[in-house]
Amino acid sequence: MTRTPVVDERPQTETAGKLEPLFAPHVIAVVGASRTPGSVGNAIISNLVLGGYTGVIYPVNPKTKSILGNRCVTSVEAIDDHVDLAVLVIPAPHVQGVVQACADRGTKHFVVISAGFKEIGGEGVQREANLKALAQERGLTIVGPNCLGIINTAPTVRMNATFARDMPVAGPFGLISQSGALCTALLDYAKGVGIGFSRFVSFGNKAAVTETDLLLALAADPLTKAILMYVEELSHGQQFIETCQRITHGPNPKPIIAIKTGRTQEGAAAAASHTGSLAGSDEVYDAVLAQAGVLRVESVKDLFDCAEVFVDPALPHGRRTAIVTNAGGPGIMATDACIRSEMTLSKFQEYTLKSLRYQLPPTSSLKNPVDVIGDAKHDRYRAALDAVSADEGVDQLVVIVTPQTMTDVTEIADVIRETKGFCGKPIVGCLMGLVDVSAGVQLLRKSGVPTYAFPEDAMRAVAAKCRFAEWTRRPLLGYRQFPVDAARVEAIFDEELKAGRTALVELKALEVFRAYGFPIVPYALATSAIEAAQAAAQIGFPVVMKISGPKIVHKTDVGGVRLNLTDEAGVRTAYDEMIAGVRGKMGADTEIWGVLVQKMLPRGKEVILGMSRDPRMGPLLMFGLGGIYTEALKDVAFRLAPIRENEALEMIMGIRSHKLLRGFRGEAPSDLEAIGDCLLRLSQLVSSHPRIRELDINPLLVYAAGQGCMVADARVILGDR
Amino acid sequence: MTRTPVVDERPQTETAGKLEPLFAPHVIAVVGASRTPGSVGNAIISNLVLGGYTGVIYPVNPKTKSILGNRCVTSVEAIDDHVDLAVLVIPAPHVQGVVQACADRGTKHFVVISAGFKEIGGEGVQREANLKALAQERGLTIVGPNCLGIINTAPTVRMNATFARDMPVAGPFGLISQSGALCTALLDYAKGVGIGFSRFVSFGNKAAVTETDLLLALAADPLTKAILMYVEELSHGQQFIETCQRITHGPNPKPIIAIKTGRTQEGAAAAASHTGSLAGSDEVYDAVLAQAGVLRVESVKDLFDCAEVFVDPALPHGRRTAIVTNAGGPGIMATDACIRSEMTLSKFQEYTLKSLRYQLPPTSSLKNPVDVIGDAKHDRYRAALDAVSADEGVDQLVVIVTPQTMTDVTEIADVIRETKGFCGKPIVGCLMGLVDVSAGVQLLRKSGVPTYAFPEDAMRAVAAKCRFAEWTRRPLLGYRQFPVDAARVEAIFDEELKAGRTALVELKALEVFRAYGFPIVPYALATSAIEAAQAAAQIGFPVVMKISGPKIVHKTDVGGVRLNLTDEAGVRTAYDEMIAGVRGKMGADTEIWGVLVQKMLPRGKEVILGMSRDPRMGPLLMFGLGGIYTEALKDVAFRLAPIRENEALEMIMGIRSHKLLRGFRGEAPSDLEAIGDCLLRLSQLVSSHPRIRELDINPLLVYAAGQGCMVADARVILGDR
Q1: Which of A264, B43, B592, B595 has its CA 20 to 30 A from that of B366?
Q2: ipTM exceeding 0.85, yes/no
Q3: d(CA B533, CA B538)
Q4: What is the pLDDT of residues B635-666, one digit of tens each?
Q5: Quick check: B404 contacting A, CB < 8 Å?
Q6: Is B177 on the interface with A (CB under 8 A)?
Q7: Which residue in B163, B189, B433 is closest to A185 by CB distance?
Q8: What CA–CA distance (Å, rounded) separates B75 from B390?
Q9: What ranges do the domains of chain B cover?
Q10: Domain B310-473 - what CATH class?
């Protein structure tokens, strides 16, 4: 397989740049500003003013002279200035007119707080469609409608254009959220824990600004070290994936951590293929987010825990982790969590052990985890950290401190901070507890050392950072294009659809795959017993014979399949018997194209390849082992097509039972490269022909490495979904 | 299958009673008490005095007149009082003598804080053995050595006999921990979050008081609503299981929530069977804890989250959950978590929907989750909770509150509290955030309503309570005893071991299983070609023939297996050929017992049953599907023998691929009852014969329901581990 070159796909800065005035406007108009305390229109002005916004605010309200000292204007037309951003807090029916009026006066950016659009159904749907059309027509950026607003804590801007209760403190995290109410809870939680944000966007109904646009804007912001996301549904699967892949690669990769709720059930409805019936689950999103390089977490706690580790931008070189602790139990908890997260415990070099032996008391445990014993003070931690951090077999450190009687927590925190300063490796503090350790936690937070209360949380975050580091080093290969006969495929589809058939019979399906260069079992269509015998002789015995006709889908049920025919006489007899038998069962006037004569294949491992087109996400490729286990255990891997060249093998290795393809129990390993080649061809096929709604190659027979694979049976379903 | 009667196994109150003076002593002697601030001997006295201990304290220190106003005594002999509890904080070498002296004067209960025992190896091991022997001889209760101490917050006792930094507040949780340092961290965290404890034991090396004793003591304490446990290794598997089963059943079941760290690798070392090689993983502990009815959690956060839900002792009647929320996003998060935890969303009755429709604004979402919309105040929550809590399809409620601009969090909390008062169903609050919601959180905590910051945490805890409720309703069936020929089995073992054989050949293994009433494929041992033909005729054709001899383990490799013999002539020829062939390969003097003639079995589903004796835990039963998948995916279920009558089916349903036995894709369901019968017989076999080290029945062929199963091949390994 010739590899296509690595692609340089840095974030498209033009898109990001386009959104920049949204986050750093010099002039803001708040349409619907209000004097009434407790109202949303008042909260916005109050947050802007009290948050210390550095630009000019124009409250728009014809009935009031001033709000919080800011002189009101009667309408947007009355503003004698260029408005960079208009924030709308007015009843939904008036939004369209005001946006239009602002746009006429040159405003390009909008935050529509107002609810009453798509989310209420009915007239709201049309209202939102109109707004979206206006945005497209005039090239406007509209956050919302139905959102909490946006925040930028950068000292040059300090804009809190939301109706949240408070301005969050400045910090390294950018957050975008589809749920406004969740934002209020997140902000409140973050306030309590002391977590800060760079930028914050509640994007609501995303009428004219999508999560992809916002991701690019956060990626371009130098104050944002990690991007946090809450999303209920993704709009454009492939665009989302490519954007995230770009953000998480290149010279300055940024992690994206996401909570994705809601399950895709639409995909599963009325599925006509194995792939379709397996594609309706939440695992699809797991796969798509993994493909995008997004770290998926299941809860808000995990979201912040995972983000915390990126406070320190240093990425580890590998998974080898050293643990230093002053207590055995937490050391075991960390070790368990380490193994559970598929990390490895560093094995120390002899010089490290020697240094530890020399400096620690004899009852200490020197091998990883290093136990400096309960009475350790900061000097003993320093000795241990100096030795361990210098070990070439250590990629990162986790330092556990339990607040025992003798423990000088704050001094130990200071030693951790110093170690981080010189060792150049990621180091994470685990200061166990809440009250007695709080001064130490504060010190580490200020020093940019990620800190956790418990070893499992620390180790899970460390593992997430490792996976991210590995991901950033993974090359972004291109999409391989095979020379294929796409026109032939389109012609088959035209012909079949014209005849009113959306489920392709085997003969036609095999032709499609042949046009895309899949290895197909040799076959011929015979229209007489003599032709069948000739075809069999040419193909080589033994052969399989299958009836072929436009309406004959369940061939076996009508006696339309014969296996293991070993000579010409047998083939001739079989031909006549099959034709007679099928007509007997299905009626004398059944249209029969003939009999498919196929080489009887040697036994190989059976795998299944498939595609199901998700109405929202796009074409989902599936891979799994064949047979009853795959279905019972749902052990399959998904990717959204097109897939990059290195993703085919990753898909194969993504099933739990991949061991069975790699030479389990002394068997020869299977030809994974041949399967990968088929997956890439499949990716090209479904990307090039949107009329394919679902398909299965079931089974693809795979032989030992170097001996290839063969499409033995396939089905293709056409149609628009 | 006749069911054995349900067993009434309430906690053995005599054992619990025996430990009671440990938790409620009237007189405590602290041996090694000290005036030096920061020392452990000082911390104990200080904690007792400042914690408000209600009894008499005797500090024992010959060099000091008083500590914190308490007059010191020079030695335990000098105490003119009956000492209920002696706390020892003296160098390890002196512990034995002091315990002896106290015991001589009638003291029965001890807490040995001192380290320097088993955990340091060397002389410490002997020191601990001596202490243990003394305890057994004199009937003493000794917590520790090498521990933090014990706490009882009951107002009548108020004893803090630890060197932790603070006395925890009184509360509903009893905690026992093998790690003292972890305790300090747990106490500190609990202090910060406001979690209280009833009793608290750091049990250290558990020389003479085990986790089982302590569990019984906590179970008997009326102030303890839930038992929390941190344990690194379990000492007596079956005893632990039975104790936990008793505590979690009966009229007043108490939940036990555990963190279990450390993995059992010993079990896997040098395994000679499939079962043995699969039994070395952490999944074994998952199974054993599940068998015990213990809720296993993976982190300290989860431990407290899970415990919190039991603040309210009301158990739900089912899994049907109603969600009430003022925000869509968190409602979706809760729904996702609900499905992920295998709970169900309530479907409301028509009268509930009617009531909701009448009382809530038109934009509200009425079906579960009920969305009362962001501007809801407590009156709207009251309307929703009144309607939903009365619905007969609702087993429990989760109430989500996000702190939006209009939200009166504390008033809503009060409505939740009131609803709990009258509805009689479990209700859980999810007050999202940390700061703005804190007054509401405090109110709910005081009212005994479990409260969480995020929906996933709330739902996970609700699910844990449901699983616990189901567990408590599950009858504790007895251990079924089949009529078996145990003497025959012992005789076979004697004979084989005498001959120096620990791996039983198939013939002997089958005899063992026959003696225990397993369905065995009909077989006979023939010692001549004519006998073989006669045996075959009697058994019925077709037959299988297998060579049998004391040293012939790998029969196939020496040409010692013939399949599908259909007539007497064939059997005679095969006999002679096999004997000659085996002698040719293995030597002319190879001892051959003859040839095993077996009925050739019809094809059935293959399953594997096995046992591996864990040196610490006891005999571990295993069940899995046969074949390559089981091993590649490690899809097997474990239980510690003996198993109760209802556990056999639970084991079968415990594998991920159990669907394949239940009539997947139109197949006939397999005979699960027959497999269950074999598992119960296996349980009896391995419990009655401790000389069995490992065994596999592989495969057990299973036929359609009602048609039974058959042992087709088996191996048994003898030996002490």
Answers
A1: A264
A2: no
A3: 9
A4: 899 999 999 999 999 999 999 889 889 887 77
A5: yes
A6: yes
A7: B433
A8: 66
A9: 310-473, 486-599, 605-718
A10: alpha beta
